[in-house]
Amino acid sequence: MKAWDVIIIGAGAAGLMCAIEAGKRGRRVLVLDHGKRIGRKILMSGGGRCNFTNYFVEPGAYLCGNPHFVKSALARYTQWDFIALVEKHRIAYHEKTLGQLFCDDSAQDIVDMLVKECADAGVSISLRAEILAVAELGEGFSVDTEAGQYSCHSLVVATGGLSMPKIGASPFGYRLAEQFGLKLLPTRAGLVPFTLQPQDKETLESLAGVSLPVVAESADGTRFTESLLFTHRGVSGPAVLQISSYWQPGEPVRFQLLPEGCLAQGLAESPSQELKTWLARQLPKRLVETLLAREGLVNKPLKQYIPKELAAIEQRLAAWPLQPGGTEGYRTAEVTLGGVDTKELSSKTMMANRVPNLYFIGEVMDVTGWLGGYNFQWAWSSGWCAGQVV
Ligand code: FDA
Q1: How many domains does the chain have?
Q2: For the chain, which has fewer Cβ within 10 Å, the N-terminal or C-terminal residue?
Q3: Are residues 264 and 167 in the same domain?
Q4: Domain-terminating residue out of 290, 305, 327
Q5: Where in the sequence is the domain holding 293, given as residue range(s)?
Q6: Ligand 1 pocket: which of 7, 9, 18, 41 to mutate (most atoms <8 Å of CB)?
Q7: Is the Cβ atom of 336 under 6 angstroms away from ligand 1?
Q8: Strands (E) located in 47-130
Q9: pTM recorded for the entire structure
Q10: Which residues pair with residue 151 across a beta bridge?
């Protein structure tokens, strides 16, 4: 049985960051991954350009059953620390929007950077490593793989969430947490497009490809100002992905298609203009036609509506309700909500409170960020923290 100081399961964002930091401290580190490539999610992230962090990272951008949990790690390894690492490797990047930082060239640059840092820190990485069993062994653990048996003092679980099973996502981390008696919070797909109820699908399907800026609001009052995209399957776009993480089945989502007060202003400026013509100046034309039919709105010059009618139309368009049929699920979701309960872990080290030397980092735990680089930042920050102590 080959002995290591640290075994990390998962060669994704969090696992690699932890490996680098532990390696730099002189620990003998082995990273095991059942995939055939390192950092596959990094490679496909951000449309192939990896949105690796965000200028505006703050604890409020994370969903977690224990909201204070993320504060320590995010403060100890910040977006500025990761940006410094990217700059050290001379990777060109840019801000796309809302503080989101992307590589100019390719997400491969980020993977190459992590692999180089691992090599410099003396980290060993073993791919196509199927893990058969994990057990406690003295103060540490034994890890049985198809390729052989290992022992380690510290075991770090960095197996990520359930989204995109096609590229290696597995429930391994959750099962391991259960094996050691750690509590799990229910998992569900997050940052995911909505599907529609059959009757909505019929009326909205023809809008596939239409996109517009909106404010999306969930039943709990969370709001995101981003764009909405109609698709053949339902609705997507950043506004929908963001709000999906706050959505509960059965609840409606409201989209502000037009700001309040703008129809009254339209009446003052162009009283003779028909509602349809006026709306088509504010919204995509295809959407206007569908909206008029769907909402049963009579089309006439704005001055012919009584104020109550105009106010009702305005109210409807300022909070247009849509009841999703569901989500597209883990097949297309960017993240998994829920996971290992953070109450089981130290917010400083990510070690399980009740199982010495067992650590959980990254998406496998119940921490989910907004769209826009926040999830990678959590992987870097939590991985870095564990890397200081394993
Ligand atoms: P991650 O999933 O990266 O790594 C887990 C590793 O564990 C994988 O390599 C997997 O093969 C391995 N593994 C799983 N089960 C195993 C087992 N049984 N045995 C051995 N190994 C196992 N976030 C962001 O901030 N900016 C972005 O641009 C994007 N874009 C994006 C696009 C798409 C399409 C997706 C699906 C996701 C994103 N994300 C994102 C989210 C981001 O990718 C995600 O939050 C992080 O990769 C999580 O990092 P982890 O290291 O925790 O898991």
Answers
A1: 2
A2: N
A3: no
A4: 327
A5: 194-327
A6: 41
A7: no
A8: 51-54, 62-63, 93-95, 100-103, 124-126
A9: 0.97
A10: 3, 142
